[in-house]
UniProtKB/TrEMBL annotation, chains A, B:
Gene: aas
Residues covered by the AMP-dependent synthetase/ligase domain: 18-394
Pfam families: AMP-binding, AMP-binding_C
Protein name, as recorded: Acyl-acyl carrier protein synthetase
Membrane spanning stretches: none
Superkingdom, natural source: Archaea
Entry keywords, A to Z: Ligase
PROSITE patterns, A to Z: AMP_BINDING
EC number from the UniProt entry: 6.2.1.20
Annotated AMP-binding enzyme C-terminal domain residues: 445-522
Molecular-function GO term, any one: long-chain fatty acid [acyl-carrier-protein] ligase activity
Length: 536, 536
């Protein structure tokens, strides 16, 4: 009998790959702790032993409630490597939703940072019987709490490095819940195989122009670790041999300091966070840092105004697109062969689209009703296939059926593919404004409004209208006082230039101090829509 | 019921990835024909239809007898994409062995370039009953032969593009035979999944320093397409979006012209071919081409002398290592974190080792007898695991068992891992010279001899010796006349400097005009060993 080894695509292979080729590459958690890939791997294997001793078994789910810390990074490896399931708990949810997701995911263990303990202490009676809670503090001092069953650091310090058990590549590695602005959170989950293939493909496009990421770059990741695997970077950096900087809870002053000190060259984030960083009062002291900074923007569309401001600072900026359901990355706006020789401004305009499919992703624009494929520049629903899409909404066959109808994952996003092969998202299907039987692409409209110099942020939503069905209402955070009239004149001019349709111009402009945000720092259009309809 | 789409890692996904993002990227076959990725994919899909019409079915094997042409490249895609199996026939074998491999692989169809037809016409009666032969000429003129059943170009021109059938990622995509210098050729085969994962990992390391390959590079591949998938590049270039140049039959004058005209920046080859190119009479006219040239050397060890000569010409050179059994790539000498900050000369010395594992490869040095893992710098047998190793020797359970003993693929190569994590091959186990109970690492010894300025090429083999078991004999191709005495003095000096052991110095130096080569252009040590033993 042959003893052929069936190589499975499991998370331990990523760790092994990183450690073997980049043993002394660093992982930095704020100014709190530093690891090399090698010492980190050792620590992960000790945690595996500690978790086993505590009783964690294959197939059981372990939730984590934390900021972007070294503890979280340990969990990204140790838990799946045991054959257990990592539940990245969304800490931006209201407490009752957090508890609901913990119950839904059937967490048997929770790893909790000390500052989140009050939340659990209050809800103690609602936690499942037998659940074990592992607590920790940054200082490694033992946490005093009557609901703590074990100390995270002690689990590591009192254990020998574990052997690596054989795990099936098709077993579940992670679970988390989509932000659910449209109803109850839905669970999505991913296998080892999906995470490994996603990391390979995302690594590959990072090296393409204009980012040209190499092993000498330094990541500081600004996508929360509870948010779709931080877009895969906790695995990508290890596979790619790149130094990794963890910022903890986002404090933009500290982030600027970290970027300087650790020589950060690369980050990924939602537009709001880019906005916070480059408009930070201390930003002027970090211009040298911005000059070497490469940024991938995703999560929501990047307004052209913000993109130009970033470009002026010397930041190289591209965009990506994906969903919780898609692991997440589907497209990135690296230069394909059609764009690489365009002039700088045209290239830039493609860079700030949602991008072009990354290796192994198949993407189509289809008619939301008939399913027929659309032509270049025609708006329709984005549907996809790739090796890393969620198989289902956890225990929800009804919604799963809708998600996967016709053998394609339905993103629920409306968009088109331009003549260069780049995707433009014009709307979430649920945010779409339908007026007089026609769609008004709110993201496109917002983009044009954002070009007005006095506009800081903008969001357009639909308000019910007896005559037209819906009409657009714009919410504006101004940089300096603006009148409705000057904005309307600006948009008329834009419509004369052919950039928008005249009938898209919003019926009303509402000026507010700041945008309501979802748990993942995107503008919460549900709240704005409610507001718009109440203000009729 | 959910219509979840189980995404399989199949060859069609590589083609789709290339075409979607790099539709106008070029494929060039000599000065004969040019394609874009897009027109090539269309042509592949027409060929699929043509082959189906001819009767080619899922699971059936199609052999190809050809140089590195556009026809061969079609076959790399169209045949596996039908669910059929591509047999890359080794045309460097003697005719009777070629026939043997065709029978062993159970080829039902053969695609044959016109100039190879005489070989088959002579052996007509030995071909399996019912075998169909597809012929072609470069000029697209129909080939006159009474054994031709179809014309390749007609299959394409008379067909509509085929749909892409669903193929399992675990089905066989390719088969070929190892060069078998030690006996009968052994068949190895690879699934779609293995080829896709190999292409992903090889693409990833290409982007690392010092090569820094990007989508703007231009490959000219100098690894024959019958030889271990041309090291995977016929898939890598498409996945990576890189222009691809096919040289046909290797004519070094023409290759130099092509490199200039097509602005080639990147190639892979065995050392012998690098030697032929840089010592070509016209090489002096192409110095500007060498200056931008990045080269991966594999197949056999790169002598330091040749490497330094290439470096002087401005060629960026790194090495790789792998076997027919391993798809082939296992290691590449990109810069890992331990090497990237060394001084230039130390870096260079690591660049010309066999390299460090590429992503997902696990590699160990073990004692050939006990299987115990060796320490840094200790010589032992190289054993590996990766997602792209052959599952077996085709229909040879005995040899398969030996290949896979203990759950690791045994390479049969002796080597060690240095303190930076780079593999040094010191010998093929079968080429090893055992003298007085100790190994003389012939590759290391050859390397030192190659440093003597008057030496052009060198190979050291063992000659039977009554007292010592074996003693080393050196075969030398001189640049200018050398005496045995001056070489012996040089090696004594090297031994004084601690570079070799004194007792390694060969008993005899035999000066020859050129090295005998195997079918894959490596130095044929079997012939030299026979010669050494006859010359006693």
């Amino acid at each position: 009998m042959s003893e052929y080894y069936e190589y499975e695509l499991t998370i331990d292979k990523i760790l092994d790959t990183g450690v073997k080729s980049f043993p002394d590459r660093e992982i930095v958690y704020r100014d709190v702790r530093r690891y090399t890939f090698s010492s980190f791997a050792d620590s992960v294997r000790r945690l595996m032993s500690g978790l086993k001793k505590l009783g964690v078994k294959e197939g059981e789910t372990v939730g984590v409630i934390d900021w972007d810390t070294d503890v979280y990074l340990h969990s990204y490896y140790a838990i799946p490597m045991l054959g257990s399931v990592l539940h990245t708990v969304n800490i931006r949810y209201p407490p009752e939703i957090i508890l609901k997701t913990i119950l839904q995911a059937e967490d048997k263990y929770l790893i909790v940072r000390d500052e989140f303990l009050p939340l659990l202490e209050k809800a103690k009676n609602l936690l499942p019987v037998g659940m074990k809670i592992i607590t920790y503090s940054d200082s490694k001092e033992k946490v005093r709490s009557n609901i703590s069953d074990a100390d995270f650091w002690e689990l590591i310090d009192s254990s020998e490095p574990s052997e690596i058990p054989q795990v099936s590549e098709n077993s579940r590695a992670t679970i988390f819940f989509t932000s659910g602005t449209t109803g109850d959170p839905k669970g999505v989950w991913f296998t080892h195989r999906k995470l490994v293939l996603h990391a390979l493909s995302v690594s590959l496009v990072g090296a393409r122009p204009p980012l040209n990421v190499t092993t000498n770059d330094v990541y500081l990741i600004l996508v929360p670790m509870f948010h779709v695997h931080s877009w895969g970077y906790p695995y990508v950096f290890m596979l790619s041999g790149i130094k990794y900087v963890l910022p903890g809870k986002y404090d933009y002053g500290l982030i600027l300091k970290l970027m300087d000190k650790e020589r950060v060259t690369f980050s990924a984030m939602v537009p709001t966070i880019l906005y916070f960083i480059i408009t930070h009062p201390e930003a002027q002291n970090y211009l040298h840092v911005f000059k070497r900074w490469k940024v991938i923007i995703g999560g929501s569309a990047l307004p052209e105004g913000l993109a130009r401001k970033a470009k002026e600072l010397g930041i190289t900026i591209i965009c990506g697109y994906g969903l919780s359901e898609t692991c997440p990355v589907l497209t990135v706006s690296y230069y394909n062969s059609l764009v690489e020789n365009l002039d700088e401004n045209k290239k830039f305009l493609e860079q700030i689209t949602a991008g072009t499919p990354i290796p192994l992703v198949q993407l189509r624009i289809v008619d939301p009703v008939s399913g027929e494929e659309k032509k270049v520049n025609e708006i329709g629903e984005i549907v996809v296939r790739s090796p890393w899409l969620t198989k289902e909404y956890y225990k929800d066959p009804e919604k799963t059926k809708a998600l996967w109808r016709g053998g394609w994952l339905h993103t629920g996003d409306l968009g088109y593919i331009d003549e260069y092969g780049y995707v433009h998202i014009v709307d979430r299907e649920k945010d779409a404004i339908k007026s007089g039987g026609e769609f008004i692409p709110s993201l496109l409209l917002e983009n044009v409004i954002s070009l007005y110099p006095k506009v800081s942020q903008v969001a357009v939503v639909g308000r019910k209208d007896e005559k037209w069905g819906e009409r657009p209402i714009a919410f504006i955070v101004p940089k300096e006082p603006i009148t409705e009239e000057e904005l309307r004149n600006f948009l008329l001019e834009m419509s004369n230039q052919g950039k928008i349709q005249k009938w898209w111009i919003p019926d009303k402009f509402i000026f507010i101090q700041s945008m309501p945000l979802t748990s993942t720092n995107k503008i919460d259009k549900k709240i704005l829509r409610d507001l718009a309809n109440k203000s009729m």
